[in-house]
Amino acid sequence: MNSLLIGLFSLMSLLAADDGADLLFAGDAMQHQAQLDAARQPDGTYGYDGCFDALKPYISSTDFAVVNFEASLGGAPYSGYPAFSAPDEYADALIDAGFDFFLTANNHILDRRDRGLVRTVETLRTKEIPFTGIYRNQTERDSQVPVVVDVKGFKIGILNYTYGTNGIRVVTDAVVDYIDRRQIAVDVDRARRNGAELIAVCLHWGDEYHLQPNASQVSLAGYLTDSLGVEMVIGGHPHVIQPMEMRIGTGGAKSLVVYSLGNFISNMRTPDTRGGAVVKVHLSRTPQGKAVVDDASYRLVFTIPASDTGNFRLVPAEACDAPAWRDRCRLFTQNAEAVFSRYNKDVRRDTSDITIPGFE
What we know:
360 residues, alpha/beta, six-stranded mixed sheet, 17 strands, 29% helix, globular, disordered N terminus
């Protein structure tokens, strides 16, 4: 009987994996001074009620959601640009919105120097939210990289690197993962040996405010997909969207390249920085049981600045019908869709219905 039960459970696990899994990647989660001012409560705490309510059902509907946390949790006094230090409650709000994993290697992670990096590590650990990209020391990095997560039976390696940290370098034992092809190759190999069936390399790269990738991005993406066989390359930092493409490699295997998801939420005000994209990646298995990237789609999101009675709000772009912001949202959407329609390759717009509780 025990053997029969074990066999049944194994079959059920295989069938569950065959049902596939959905990953979601979101862009730059910023925390500018205006966002801090809107979130500050009379008692000095910070509250983010309403910020992510309109997107929470969509985020939570996926099996594993990843956000680029572009700030530090460096402690008070809190500040926005140019030296970001976000309240701990901001991380709580993103977790409550449905995110399962934080990317932390970005150009602002040392805004509060080594102490801010260490506090960010310790705070995220206390909150029990997985992350990668920064470490208190090399020993910690050696024991924690690569991160391999299990999502409905799919073993996924997640790696995270940044082009730089605004000229600030660590002066203690702290470690930031910088873009280095040799190190990435070592980490990808370790991820495979540690059981990763699919690998997502998440990069903070590119030129700010440019709607097209630069030559360095294109070259590195080719190296990751063609030479290292990475299945997902996900980019952030430009604060505007850049094209997405599904590449077909040797043997027909797919690799997704997203050059930039743009801003997830921010107080940036130029037409192309007011919003961004989230990308949903569907995983499946071949008849032989091999895990593959099967499909990818995107959804545009738009940030509505704070009103006198509330916080900044992130909404699906198609639901932005508030009279004060309709025209700005339409301009952002038109510009983004123009780029995607011309340059995207086999990455479509997600037209599925989305329930937005209490959104007006």
